[in-house]
Amino acid sequence: MIQNSNSAKALSNEDIKKIQKAIKDELTAQPPTIGLVGISGVGKSSTINTLFRTSLPTSDTVACTKQFEIKDLYIQFTKGESKGDKVCLRVVDAPGLGEDIKRDPQYLSMYKKNLLKCDVILWILTARNRAVALEQYYLRKLKKFHDSIVFAINQVDLIEPLNWNVKINLPSREQLHDLKIIVKDRSEKIASTINRRITIIPYSAKMKYNLEELFKFIIDKCPTDRRWIFNNIKGFHYTDFLPKELHEIFLEKKEL
Amino acid sequence: MDYCHRCGRRLPEVAIYCPNCGTERLDDYEYYQISSMINKSKKYEVETHRKSKNSFLEWLANIGLGTIVSKLISWAWTAIKTLLGFF
Known about the structure:
Strand order of the largest sheet of chain A: 2-3-1-4-5-6
Structural class of chain A: alpha/beta
Largest interface: A-B, 43 and 40 residues
Largest sheet of chain A: 6 strands, mixed
Strand content of chain B: under 5%
Number of strands of chain B: 0
Order of helices and strands of chain B: HH
Largest sheet of chain B: none
Oligomer: heterodimer
Strand content of chain A: 5-15%
Radius of gyration of chain A: 20 Å
Number of helices of chain A: 9
Distance between the termini of chain B: 43 Å
Number of helices of chain B: 2
Shape of chain A: globular
Structural class of chain B: mainly alpha
């Protein structure tokens, strides 16, 4: 990108100012927008908090997102030409599907209206729940958004036998084994609903597991001329989440 | 692993912690898991950076800053030619 000093030399100050102004205008007119969909309690808000270092409210006990909300979160560009500048990340945070049957039809129409504005939609499932009928039902209703959806399974740390390897902050062998089965099963079920093959990304927002892969898929689903915005607001790196001791051990090695 | 990852001391067969530096022992599988995650992360980082770069150029072109894009392309072409000159 333009932040490369050599390429910057090829541009005049006027050009750079022009680009900076254009970036500002673009972000004001159409801020990066991400839609979150999933049944109640799958960790939609915590996922956003982990990916972009934001602070949407979360709760372990009751549904936090009661209304269909569009939240503007001001975060910093972590890289690129405008590094350090504040940018608005718009999060279309939907109340969990299936939370209240009386409200579902109302929510559905709001989904249809608001998801249109999203660059990318993150559809989150949970590894704890085998039933996907609710997701299948809503996916049928939200047909026109299928191409912009990234499917992901959160809470992989809660897969039985609940023996997450805290020493290396990764799933245990048993969990990894079951995770493959879970991902295959959910992929087949969702694929049969939307009539195309899909990839589901397993991750854990709580343990910060596999977020790089999730982010890569988010970037892939963005409109091609908007990917740079998301990449420049990415707020993490895998090595940030390595346990401190391992951090020292593994980061001392330049090449693995 | 027979040796401590941090200080390199040979570990007794039953030791969970290194007697020298106190680091918890990693088995081969755990070591492999972390290395794979780091490598995967690097790969994705490079990939998303490349896509982001292309995306930025596409965006510039779309908003009509064609001159700037052509300057960038010409700069990239010069850099490639210079690099090729070395080989």
